[in-house]
Design goal:
By secondary structure, the chain is of the alpha+beta class. The chain has a domain of 102 residues: Beta Barrel (OB fold (Dihydrolipoamide Acetyltransferase, E2P)), CATH 2.40.50.200. Helix content is 41%, strand content 31%. The protein contains 4 helices and 6 strands. It has a 5-stranded mixed beta barrel, surrounded by 4 helices. A hairpin with a 5-residue loop joins strand 2 and strand 3. 18% of the residues are buried. The protein binds copper (II) ion. Keywords: Signal.
Length: 148
């Protein structure tokens, strides 16, 4: 009788440990899923056309375009965050590629100009960013055409 009680107890213990472990896994999975859904989408390579803006003047005063070019140049050279404003009004923060900072630094020289940026797009907490892997100015002949 004692032996039977002991074996029942061990079986129950094994079940309890198993259920606890599964419960923990389930909770961790839920946390990962909800976090991912709330904050981030996986990066995808994009090619986006838009105007190089300084984020401070654009966000505070809607300042952009050629009339604001000299201010934007000054702001960007002083370290103001740089953004890309598309024709449909989407604003991307531009970030530096760890592998090659040259395209980002090149973009800083093109304040208020139309450019085409290629790189991974990131979205988190409602913010959009493109890491500048490549940038080029839009040629006059390309200006009226589609945007990526
Ligand atoms: Cu400015």
């Amino acid at each position: 009788m004692k032996r039977l009680t002991v074996s029942i107890a061990s079986v129950l213990l094994i079940f309890a440990v198993g259920a606890y472990a599964q419960g923990m896994q389930g909770m961790q999975g839920m946390q990962h899923n909800s976090k991912a859904q709330a904050n981030a989408e996986p990066a995808k390579e994009v090619t986006v056309q838009g105007e190089i803006v300084d984020m401070g003047c654009y966000l505070s005063s809607d300042a952009h375009g050629m009339g604001h070019q000299s201010c934007a140049e000054k702001c960007l050279s002083n370290g103001m965050p740089m953004g890309l404003l598309t024709k449909d009004g989407t604003l991307y923060l531009l970030t530096v590629s760890h592998g090659n900072a040259d395209p980002f630094n090149q973009a800083k020289q093109w304040a208020a100009e139309q450019v085409i940026v290629t790189g991974p797009e990131f979205r988190r907490n409602g913010m959009k960013a493109v890491e500048v892997d490549q940038v080029r100015q839009v040629n006059a002949t390309e200006k009226p055409t589609k945007q990526g």
